[in-house]
Amino acid sequence: MKSFFRWPHEEGHVSKNLATKIKEPKAGKRIPKFLTEIEIEHLREACSSPLEKALFEFMFSTGCRIGEIVTLQRSGINWSNRTAIVRGKGDKEREVYFNIAAKFGLNDTLNNARIAIQPFLSPNGILIE
Known about the structure:
There is one protein chain. The protein has six helices and three strands, in the order ααααβββαα. The protein has helices at about 1-10, 35-45, 50-60, 65-70, 100-110, 115, and strands at about 75-80, 85, 95. The protein starts with a helix and ends in a 12-residue tail after the last helix. Keywords: DNA recombination. GO terms for molecular function: DNA binding.
């Protein structure tokens, strides 16, 4: 509507643009896309190592980004409450909750397979790139 009235004003056919005070509608927000249960199971099955399975479960249950997991500190994990403090975008900290599968997967991976993942462990954090 605004552009319909703008054109004759710009061309000089009318002296005043009658649509200047009309507010344009706001663009609607998109609904986020999500995975189906079948797609999630396919991703679980595609994990080839215990580390991949543990990280997938943690990411899936918490919604964390890879960058947040990379900077995850062992001291920030509360195993009994299944919570973790992660540092996200803008260096903001937030508390996330993980499911029992993520708890067992991470705990087993970090404790039992320490030698296998030693090159990936940072001194203070869980994983490095």
